[in-house]
Design a protein that fits this description.
The complex is a heterodimer of chains A (353) and B (488). Chain A has helices at 39-56, 81-92, 113-122, 137-144, 160-174, 192-203, 220-227, 245-249, 263-266, 273-280, 284-287, 310-313, 320-339, and strands at residues 70-75, 96-101, 127-132, 148-154, 181-185, 207-211, 239-242, 254-257, 295-297. By secondary structure, chain A is α/β, with parallel strands linked by helices. Chain A has a 5-stranded parallel sheet. In chain A, strands 2-1-3-4 form a 4-stranded parallel sheet, sandwiched between helices. Chain B has 2 domains: 5-75 and 434-484, Urease, subunit C, domain 1 (Roll); 78-421, Alpha-Beta Barrel (TIM Barrel). Chain B contains 15 helices and 18 strands. Chain B has helices spanning 97-106, 125-138, 162-167, 183-196, 219-224, 232-248, 265-276, 287-291, 295-298, 317-320, 341-353, 368-371, 388-397, 403-410, 412-418; strands at 5-8, 26-36, 41-50, 53-59, 73-77, 79-84, 109-114, 143-148, 172-173, 200-203, 215-216, 228-229, 257-260, 281-285, 358-359, 438-448, 467-477, 480-484. Classes of the chains: A alpha/beta (353), B alpha/beta (488).
Chain lengths: 353, 488
């Protein structure tokens, strides 16, 4: 059972009848992107994640919050860590979990996404966690599904739970990120992680630097120019785009490397993995430009020896495995928050307080 | 409205309403705003149609003209659309010749030029015969003009039966949907079509630059994680086609190049320069490329001229709070893609300064099956023949161009592009003693675009739910009724 609350016995009363978790309520039915999250929304996710971390520290990490709720996880792209992370998170909350590997379902027989979502709904899903290779696909799912859709990564567009777990991990070490320098290094053009991190980190006031070779930074200079000089969307600061690794890393509090895929060479975007590693790989030597205690992050899976040197990934200040652990807590928080806004249903018992 | 419009069979106008296809025996419109782009004149006036013939056009002056303006009932020559897709044969779920002609009449068009990218493609006259048969069977008086394919099966390798297609009345040759990929085939097609006196309608796109492309390359596509569709793909292709045209002219003085649905400042500049040195190049632009922008893909729904800042650069829909609809609406997916506000401004400027000869809709109806999918997988195209007038009137209302220019771009402009192949009504003025071919619309009355109000089978319009000005009351083609508003 969840942590005790001031109103007394844990168990059956809906959350709304209890002490509110925070002054700021959660209004979003779906989590499709992070661009619509206010700083207060993000704060609520962080606070709820704290409560989930506390649960995860117990001998028994299961609470009944989502008992009787069906969470269907459908991944149209191969993934181990994100899919398992969502599954563990949902099970910790006592949800009934259905896992669909899209390649093994009727999807491979040509069923449309809309039909698949309607079928999942008819089978009793209350929430869908979806990974899809096409940018925007979760929006289509959300249009036809009467429950909540949680975007587990769509194309190049967004990976909300990853950006939030990255943020949680940074805050755990650095506290307030305002003015803290965060450098993201790698294949930004094809990265949903980079895009979502741009939204969340600029919302937090971080001094964000985006770095990589020009062909895989295409378009980001124009984006940064739009947001320069305080002209970004409400509450979002600007960021800096550069191909100068040393400038990006100088004095950084956080350095995040992104995966570089071999297909980028085949597409003629870059000369070779060797040249990439030599010019942009995160090595101990390059890392010396950053602050001595700078965090090293990577959303995984890593290509050791390409975008990150093997000895960098295992440094004390590398928080790569901590990101994975925090991922479960953040996803528990997101499932919990989303479950409480739809059709009058409320999670069972309160979490934290 | 009832005071200005009286129509019907002589003697019993109310009891015996006209049906589509029937000759208009008597039509009197008094106290309307007349636009005659051939005479270069517009103003208060009256018309009388008798036995399908435009019998009298009377211009009013002085007291009689009092209170009549361009914001009320307008009478103009019937519109010509250089570029529509009617989907028959092969994709009748999306549109048929009958539904497409009915939709055209609802949009005020009395002549449409159908593209040959049907299944099979119109690469020989047999397909023409089939399509014309469907038009006759539909009973619509809207004139159906046909483009023939440039290459066999639009495959880009061997020339289609260009001479036979010309003999069968082709008004243009085009592999639209795709460019003529090989510059060698493009050269030979321009030479052969030039010999025949038929213009080549080129879809200007360098497809090497647009593999997998989803949305205009720029800020919106970057933020949404959509694969960029660079403006350069159109500019390169337009420049190439113009250079090839210049090279063939000594051998084929009759060669004519028409670049269709241009969407970028760069390509329009190329046309402007080509025209300045006297090359026989024409071009059209679409209503959606001058009125809509790529920020619609993100969920904005403001007109292009409202999406641009005072410094002439596009505004940020995220920072402006301009996002009012879901992002990734596949109704906004079109080839060429909705461009930046800067490009849209260049499209409008090109129309105003005459660089663009015509507005063509690129009416591209699609079935729901082809649109209710992931954005990247959705078919390209906007169902646009019914909303063209409304988008242009929005630009007129925002004082971005004149009503006269908008009407000319839909009448005399396309007629000039077609030249002597322009069909039965030629230059499109309000010409007395000629068969009546006209549209009557109320610039002051709106209508809401919806799946119910659209006549086309394709309801793939980003304008769904929006009220447009310029409700079409009546369309008369070749003296016969093509469309009549239920309340007119």
């Amino acid at each position: 059972m969840s942590a005790p609350t001031e109103s007394g016995a844990p168990g059956t009363a809906p959350l709304a009848a209890r002490e509110p978790l925070t002054e700021h309520p959660w209004h979003h039915r779906h989590l499709l992107d992070v661009d619509g999250l206010s700083a207060a929304d993000i704060g609520l996710v962080m606070k709820t994640t704290d409560a989930m971390k506390e649960i995860l520290a117990r001998p028994i990490t299961k609470v009944p919050a989502l008992r009787g709720r069906n969470v269907t996880i459908i991944f149209y792209e191969a993934s181990t860590r994100t899919r398992v992370s969502f599954e563990v998170a949902a099970k910790n909350l006592s949800a009934d979990v259905v896992n669909i590997a899209a390649s093994a379902s009727s999807v491979s027989k040509g069923e449309s996404l809309v039909d698949t979502i309607r079928t999942i709904e008819a089978l009793g899903a209350h929430m869908i966690v979806m990974r899809h290779g096409t940018s925007g696909a979760p929006y289509l799912a959300a249009e036809v599904f009467s429950g909540s859709v949680l975007n587990g990564g769509d194309g190049w567009h967004a990976h909300p739970s990853q950006a939030l777990l990255d943020l949680y991990t940074m805050r755990a070490h650095l506290g307030d990120l305002h003015g803290k320098k965060v450098a993201i290094l790698g294949d930004v053009l094809h990265s949903r992680v980079a895009r979502s991190n741009i939204w969340t980190l600029t919302a937090m006031g971080a001094d964000l630097w985006i770095c990589g070779p020009s062909p895989i930074l295409r378009g980001f200079d124009a984006w940064a120019a739009r947001w320069a000089n305080g002209r970004g969307p409400n509450g979002h600061g600007g960021f800096t785009v550069t191909s100068d690794v040393d400038a990006a890393l100088a004095g950084a509090d956080v350095v995040m490397a992104l995966r570089l895929q071999r297909e980028r060479m085949d597409a003629g975007l870059l000369p070779s993995l060797r040249e990439y590693a030599a010019r942009f790989g995160l090595t101990q030597e390059r890392l010396r430009a950053a602050r001595p205690d700078a965090l090293v992050m990577h959303p995984g899976p890593m290509n050791e020896g390409v975008e990150i040197a093997a000895d960098v990934a295992v440094l004390d200040r590398s928080v790569i495995t901590e990101q994975v652990a925090n991922g479960v807590a953040v996803r528990m928080a997101l499932l919990y928050l989303l479950s409480g806004v739809h059709s009058g249903w409320h999670p069972e018992g309160a979490i934290g307080g | 409205m009832a005071e200005t419009l009286r129509m019907g069979v002589t003697g019993a106008p109310e009891a015996n309403p006209l049906r589509v296809g029937q000759k208009v025996e008597l039509l009197e419109i008094s106290r309307a705003w007349l636009v005659d782009p051939v005479a270069g004149r517009e103003g208060p006036g009256e018309i009388v149609v008798r036995d399908g013939i435009l019998e009298a056009v009377t211009w009013l002056e002085g007291d009689e003209a009092e209170g009549i303006g361009p914001d009320g009932v307008v009478v103009a020559p019937g519109f010509i659309d250089l570029h529509v897709h009617l989907r028959e044969p092969g994709n009748e779920d999306a549109e048929t010749v009958a539904s497409g002609l009915a939709a055209a009449a609802h949009g005020g068009f009395t002549s449409v030029c159908a593209m040959p990218n049907t299944t099979p493609a119109a690469d020989e006259p047999g397909v023409f015969a089939r399509v014309r048969g469907a038009a006759v069977a539909s009973g619509s008086p809207v004139e159906l003009l046909l483009h023939g394919a440039v290459t066999v099966g639009r495959g880009g390798e061997r020339l289609a039966a260009l001479g036979e297609l010309a003999d069968a009345g082709a008004v243009g040759f085009s592999d639209d949907g795709s460019p003529v990929k090989s510059p060698v085939i493009l050269r030979n097609a321009l030479l052969y079509a030039g010999m025949l006196g038929v213009p080549l309608f080129e879809h200007a796109e360098d497809t090497a630059l647009t593999v997998g492309a989803e949305a205009n390359e720029g800020y919106v596509a970057t933020v949404l994680g959509l694969k960029g569709w660079p403006a350069a793909a159109e500019v390169v292709a337009a420049e190439r086609a113009i250079a090839v045209l210049a090279a063939v002219l000594p051998d084929a003085p009759g060669a004519r190049l028409h670049l269709t649905h241009l969407s970028t400042a760069g390509a329009l500049d190329a046309v402007r320069r080509a025209k300045a040195v006297g090359l026989p190049v024409t071009c059209d632009v679409t209503p959606h490329h001058l009125g809509l922008t790529d920020e619609w893909v993100a969920g904005a729904r403001r007109w292009a001229w409202d999406a641009i800042g005072e410094d002439g650069s596009a505004r940020d829909p995220w920072a402006d709070g301009a996002l009012v609809a879901h992002p990734y609406d596949t109704a906004c997916k079109v080839n060429p893609p909705l461009r930046s506000a800067e490009d849209a401004a260049a499209v409008l400027a090109a129309l105003v300064d005459g660089t663009a000869d015509a507005v063509a809709t690129d009416h591209a109806p699609h079935s729901q099956v082809d649109k209710e999918v992931e954005f990247g997988l959705a078919a390209n195209g906007i169902s646009g023949v019914e909303t063209a007038l409304g988008v242009l009137l929005a630009a007129v209302g925002a004082q971005r161009m004149t009503l006269g220019r908008a009407v000319a771009a839909l009448t005399t402009g396309p007629a000039r592009v077609l030249g002597d192949r322009a069909g039965r009504v030629g230059a499109r003025g309000l010409t007395e003693r000629a068969p009546a071919d006209l549209v009557v619309f109320d610039a002051g009355a709106g209508w809401t675009v919806s799946t119910a109000t659209l006549v086309s089978r394709g309801t793939n319009s980003p304008l769904l739910g929006r009220e447009l000005a310029g409700r079409v009351l009546l369309t008369v083609a070749d003296g016969r009724l093509a469309y009549r508003d239920a309340e007119a």
